[in-house]
Amino acid sequence: MRIVRVTDDATTDLLYRQVLLPSFPEDQLVTGESLLADLHDGVGEVFVARDDAGALLGGAVGSWYEGPRVMLLSYLAVAEEGRGTGVGSLLLGHLVPEWAERYDPCLIVAEVERPDQHPGNRAHGDSEARLRFYARLGARALDLPYFQPALDRQKARVHGMLLLLLHAAPEFAGEHPESVAAGPLRGFLTEYLVETEGEVARQDPATSALWQGLDRAGGVAVRPVERYAQIAAG
What is the DSSP string of 158-175? Predict the structure, then answer.
């Protein structure tokens, strides 16, 4: 098996159609055109995993927010027939250290569904198993009532999500043990909301609750993934 970073439209489109489109609900997935635009603009990264014969096994997409220096693992998915074979672990194990070295980010984060809000299904995967996967690879959950912004005007916000921490530069530890500084997260979420929804609607209850979590003294607490139920739902 080999994992490669790709920059060509054909491979990106193949990943989108064969792996991402069947793996994510419509509201959680950007359009193929948007994915290609990010790739061309240099703010999107695409990796694929192939077997020795060249068959596409899975892939991942990252979105780089240069101002706050935060990398978002937007998507990581394995073709249905390859789930449970270690492809996802190899992808994530490759991506995090590469991004940490190449970008020197403050944080690397990922969005995942809360199992108590999204039970999952055969097509989109088991949300409990997905959390266990991230926990095995060292991810922790940020104590924020998180929701995924509406990715465009045709899509809805996705509530009941978790924002996972995959990597934090040591200098961005919070004032208390097991916390991270809120500044990079606030900058990232501001850019993300403006990019997708056009504004940070602080008067909106869900956005207001998210910002209250960012404004807590001492930074944003980090919880073991398996204790996600202790985190308020967004």
Answer: EEEEEEEEEEE-GGGB-S
**First-to-last C-alpha distance (Å) of the chain:** 38
Whole-number Å distance between alpha carbons of 15 and 198: 28
- Could you tell me which of 45, 63, 115, 57 has the C-alpha nearest to residue 86? 57
The arithmetic mean of pLDDT across residues 182-211, rounded, is 96
The whole-angstrom separation of Cα 91 and Cα 76 is 8
As for how many domains the chain has, the answer is 1
Q: Do 160 and 119 meet the contact criterion of CB atoms below 8 Å apart?
A: no
In this structure, the chain runs to a length of 234
Average pLDDT over residues 209-232: 95
Across the range 215-219, mean pLDDT stands at 92
CATH number, domain at 151? 3.40.630.30
Query: How many whole angstroms separate alpha carbon 100 and alpha carbon 193?
Result: 24
Q: Would you tell me the crossing angle of helices 127-136 and 87-103 to the nearest 10 degrees?
A: 50
Q: Which two tokens stand for residue 191?
A: 């850019």
Residue 103 structural domain? 2-230
Burial of 96 (0-12, 13-18, 19+ CB in 10 A): buried
Output the DSSP codes for 107-137.
Answer: EEEEEEE-TTT--EETTTEEHHHHHHHHHHT
pLDDT of residue 124: 64
Coil/strand/helix, residue 223: strand
Q: Which of 160, 36, 47 is nearest to 99 (CA)?
A: 47
